[in-house]
Structures are given as C-alpha cells and as structure tokens.
Design goal:
The chain is built from 8 helices and 14 strands. With about 250 residues, the protein is of the alpha/beta class.
Length: about 250
C-alpha cells in the first residue's frame, strides 16, 4: 500500500494570502501546504480521501490518471470544493463512486446539484455514484475492507477511514473509546495537528501526540497543519521518534 499526502494544510493553506507570518515566507518546500487530502493506492487502484479546492493541482502534480473512488470525511469546503474537477476522470471512466455520511451527500447535492441531482444535471458535468456510509458498518471497496471511524469536529461527526493497517483521521477534536478501539494494530496512522495553542474543533499538537501514543501505531503522521504550528524543521525535532510531520507530496509505502 502506498500513501501520498496530496495536501497537509488547513482551510487557508500555507502560505496564507496577504500574511506576513514567517512560516508563510519560508523557503522550505515542506512549509508550503495545499488543502488536506490523501491518495491511497494498492494493486492498480487509486482512492482519494477528500477532494478540496486544490484537487486539480494535486492530481496534475502527482500524475494521477485514474480515480476509483473518493472517500469524504465531512462536508466542509476545504475537503469537498474540488468535486467539479473530477471531470477528466469521469470522461474517461464514467460515474465516479463517492462515499460519505448521508448528511454529507445531502450537502453535496445542495451545493453541486448539477452533478448529483439527475433532474438538474448540466450536460457535460461529471457524474458520481453516491454511496451512503453507515459509520457502524464495514464496507468493501476495490477488494479492501474499509472501516469507518467516527470522530467529533466540535459538534460535528466526521469520518475517518481504516484500510488494512492504515488509518486516516482529520479534523477531529475528540474520539470515543469504542471508535478508538477500531485503530489497534496499525502500521500507519494519520491525525490532524493544527497548532500548539488549544482549538475548539481540532487537536492541537499536544493532544495529537497524546492520542497517537494511546493508539500506538508503528508510525503516526500529522496533517491539517496551520502556519501557527511553526516551521516544519523545528516542529519535527520536538516530536517523539515514531511521530512525524507530514508534508505535501510525501509518499510512504508499507
């Protein structure tokens, strides 16, 4: 299995428009962060987790020519606003399967009615096959069992996904004990780590480290990173041995 971090930034990305923050002017390419998304590949399959506003740029940079499905964590724009850019995949492959909570599919139908609503579908627009995810039920996708994992993004339930010994959770603040139990025995865990200061809807760095140590994956990678966390090189030095700061276009194979 191969994981590529397509983007590791927050809703504004890094650099932020008009910001004078030192991290926004960093020359280290690891401090340049597009909106958070990940590519998961096994055998000949390519699955994307979230499809944000930088989706087109991410696909071009990584030379992705096939998309077998999109797994959505939640409906916020930095995780969904690139949906229209699946057009090239649709033109070659047909309808693209998408997986999300019922609430998220309803939200996408309101915002992208010309894609999801067959009555109002615009000629030439892409099309999708919506698959509502029951967060209590494992489902099969491309010969892999996908285990939904529920976290809380303030008062909003968001989905993480476990595929084999890999799990991806972003935009969470808390996770219930029974959901955390779904994450035992991982080789690779991905968690959000926004900044050092506490935040009402995201894990901060200390909380992310604590949760990573509770889960005990062989390696944990942090994503959904704000410029307020600091320079990549400085932050990485503060992390435990098995915890890593992800960066855009980092690929890991296991």
């Amino acid at each position: 299995m191969k994981i590529t971090f397509l983007g590791t930034g927050t809703s504004q990305g890094i650099p932020i428009i008009g910001s004078d923050h030192p991290v926004c002017h960093s020359d280290d390419p690891r401090d340049k962060r597009l909106r958070t998304s990940a590519l998961v590949q096994w055998d000949d399959y390519s699955i994307v987790i979230d499809c944000g506003p930088d989706f087109r740029q991410q696909m071009l940079h990584n030379s992705i020519d096939r998309l077998d499905a999109i797994l959505f964590t939640h409906e916020h724009a930095d995780h969904t606003a690139g949906l229209d850019d699946i057009r090239p995949f649709f033109f070659r492959q047909g309808d693209i399967p998408i997986y999300a909570l019922d609430r998220v599919i309803d939200n996408l139908t309101q915002r992208f009615g010309y894609i999801l609503n067959s009555v109002d579908k615009y000629p030439g627009a892409p099309a999708v096959q919506p698959h509502p995810v029951d967060p209590t039920t494992t489902f099969q996708l491309c010969q892999q069992h996908i285990i939904p994992v529920v976290g809380q993004h303030h008062q909003l339930n968001v989905l993480g996904y476990r595929v084999g010994s890999f799990a991806y959770l972003t935009d969470i603040k808390t996770i219930a004990d029974d959901e955390r139990q779904k994450l035992s025995g991982l080789d690779v865990l991905v968690l959000n780590a926004l900044r050092e200061e506490p935040h009402h809807s995201h894990l901060n760095l200390a909380e992310a480290i604590d949760l990573a140590q509770q889960i005990g994956a062989k390696n944990t990678y942090f994503t959904h990173i704000s410029h307020h966390l600091g320079f990549h090189a400085d932050v990485q030095q503060k992390l435990p041995k098995s915890v890593h700061l992800a960066y855009d276009n980092l690929s890991i194979t296991f």
